[in-house]
Amino acid sequence: MTDTAEHDDRVTDEDRAARLRERRLAAHHGARRVFARFGFHRTLRERLALLEEAADVHDLDQLSDVYGDGVVEALETKVAGLLGTEAAAFFPTGTMAQQVALRCWAGRTGNPAVALHALSHPEVHERNAFSEVGRLRPVRLTSEPRLPTAAEVRDFEPFGALMLELPLRDAGFVLPSWEELTAVVEAARDRDAVVHFDGARLWESTVHFGRPLEEIAGLADSVYVSFYKALEAFGGAALAGPRELVEEAKTWRHRYGGMVFQQFPTVLSALVGLERQLPRLPEYVAHARVVAAAMREAFAAAGVPWARVHPEVPHTHDFQVWLPYEPDVLGEAAVRMAEETGVVLFGNGWDRGGPGLALTEVHVRADGLEWSAEDVKAAVAEFAARLPERIR
């Protein structure tokens, strides 16, 4: 096969995937039943409507923000209070927030090595940003689909900072037990290392740990949180920790280009999320466990071989589903079901997990609360009936 032919095949596959995604988003937007509706599922007009709630969370007669004052400072103060830290700084992205945090810690510890999981977000999704931009040296504690253990931390090479992603998304949104987490943190302290939490989804981890946010965040020297995932804001992140660290981080935020002239739409949406979504997250986690159990039972009843829900009991309101089919087969079946019935069982794409094996993520939010266990089982039966008979 020539290079040109290989290129043509690749383009064709990319075009096919793009068309499937367009169909999936269109079907999701018009569906009568889904588990979650995120910002990218909505029109611009629908997203702007979120700001209609902003008057309930902030005085809209105040002057708009300029380079991080006003409403931005109000959000920073609120986040620091929720996490029990001395201060917090708003960042346009979590990628920037964590690079800055760990760069600051490297300067303080004198060691640029950051111990982290091989599946952590900076390693998988940020194009080597830690090393290419942050002048950091990421070192992988483990690649197992779980958080690192205290023994792994104690026996590892010297490092200046330990970064823990809570929950670890690419392993299935998994969390350690509270006892395991505290042991890992203590092991890092024994190595004279600082601890940073990648808490993009920390908001929804309180149910699993059985602890309030400030107690969880209090284990770490610094914490990053996201506003657009569970809280459904337009975007944005915050870095929280000691006041001196946060002030240094603000200097680096400016150097990284994160000192944005005005950010009030995103900040207001974050304040709305903290007011409206944060109190509901335990309810979403509880119902995700109902959904996961119903899916597991329904796939077994449908005779689908090696169907897996991971974790079996979700640690947050997000979890994975693994099925023994090629990703394109599952993707087409899911979209066709949504188009024909108005019911979206799987709203995300499918990724290859091995030969003849694929996985997707399921997210349960407010819309998901409308599903009973029987609704889930009926939808799984409908989906399974659309899978090729020769494989089932």
Explain what the structure shows.
By secondary structure, the protein is α/β, with parallel strands linked by helices. The protein contains 15 helices and eleven strands. The protein has helices spanning 3-30, 44-48, 71-83, 94-109, 121-125, 129-132, 150-154, 178-190, 206-209, 213-217, 243-255, 264-276, 281-301, 327-341, 373-384; strands spanning 87-91, 113-116, 137-140, 161-165, 194-199, 222-226, 237-241, 308-310, 318-323, 351-354, 357-363. The strands form two sheets. The chain has a seven-stranded mixed β-sheet, sandwiched between helices. Strands 8-9-11-10 form a four-stranded antiparallel β-sheet, covered by helices on one side. Helix 8 (178-190) links the parallel strand 4 and strand 5. Helix 1 (3-30) runs parallel beside helix 14, helix 4 (94-109) packs across helix 11 and helix 13 crosses helix 15. The longest helix has 28 residues, at 3-30. The protein starts with a helix and ends in an 8-residue tail after the last helix. The mean pLDDT is 95.
